[in-house]
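Run folding on both entries below.
>entry_1
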Amino acid sequence: MDAQTIEVLGRHRLTEELLNAGIEVAVPVRDRGVDLVAYLERGEELTKFRARPIQMKAAQESVFSIDSKYATTPDLLLVYVWYVTEPAKTRFFGLSYGEAVQLAELMGYTATASWQQGGKYVVTAVGAELEAKLTRYEMTADGERWWGILR
């Protein structure tokens, strides 16, 4: 399956996840590093409109990547969508850019030539240690973590 198909599937899976959590979704007209905007515009506990830009990273397997070009987008949420072709296995992880960099530092990725020379790092098969660290950023089926990020 090609990369564009994976991205389309990921966007649809992520949109479905957000809508099921009661969160609205907007798709930017131009691609400037924001794939979706998740927002809350009404609700008893809301006192103002809340929105968060999302850069989605979709994959058929477990993949983690970080790119310094995303540092310039305020409040950007990096959402990793794993196993997009297997809905029963699909997992969502949401991290701010800063949290993703901190995780990359903990794992030693920012000490690599790839990061230091190009500002990028990709893990194409997430191991047990990184997966365990990512667990705290995993979105819950009830949508509570999504709401917490947007509040």
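>entry_2
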Amino acid sequence: MKQTDRITTAFMSLREQMLSLAERITGNRDDAADAVQDAFVKLWQQREQYESASHARGAGMITVRNSSIDLARRSSHASELPVEQAADAAIETSNEETDAAYQQVRRIIDNELSPRQRAIIDMREIEEMEFEDIAKRLGMQPAAVRVELSRARKRVREMYHNRKKNNS
């Protein structure tokens, strides 16, 4: 995957999270959209510096946070909380929610999927391997890897939503 594709993919996969974070910091959806756009422009200008999609994603969230703080400082002179404290609180809440969801998904993967499905998910999502490389490692065809990954994701998604619904 080309570097520009990696940056674009990383940004698009995080866009909603970035908007949510920016909105909590700025308090305004339009300002949040501006902060996300500013962040993407900054990320794009520095795209050669990112070694992987995960590196780009991390930099993206930090850049959105900083852009949101800058925008909030410019647009709001009086605030109940200093902007830095509001941003830190927003990130803590977001990280706690994200961590809890990640842990629940990881438990589903570890306990409910077949060993092959677990291996495919880990190789694709964590190690970011290409389908052809996964297929070679597991002695499968790339199309079979795609099908198995799709089934595993579907099962995880269904189980996650069912558990979430039952806990509500």
